[in-house]
Amino acid sequence: MYKIEYSKTAIKKLNKIPKNLVKRIQNKLTEIAQNPYRENPNLKKLVGREGYRLRIGDWRIIYEINNDRIVILVLYQIRLISHTKRY
What we know:
By secondary structure, this protein is an alpha+beta fold. The chain has one domain: YaeB-like fold, CATH 3.30.2310. Helices cover 29% and strands 33% of the residues. It is built from 2 helices and 5 strands. The protein has helices spanning 8-16, 19-34, and strands at residues 3-6, 43-45, 52-56, 59-66, 69-77. A hairpin with a 2-residue loop joins β3 (52-56) and β4. The longest helix has 16 residues, at 19-34. The radius of gyration is 15 Å and the shape is globular.
């Protein structure tokens, strides 16, 4: 199993989000740590650099795999704006 490490930026973001979401993120990361190369529809390899992007709801987690470690670099939230047409 791979060891999970967090960047300072990721730790700051984790401290600001709700605890239930932190638990959900940690559960997904634990699954990935068991086999980081397993097929996952919510996981994409980054283009133009090393690393991966994991989708958990409207949150994205950017991480790299270094030897036997998974380093969580950034967590961010996608805010989708719905546009409704009025006629």
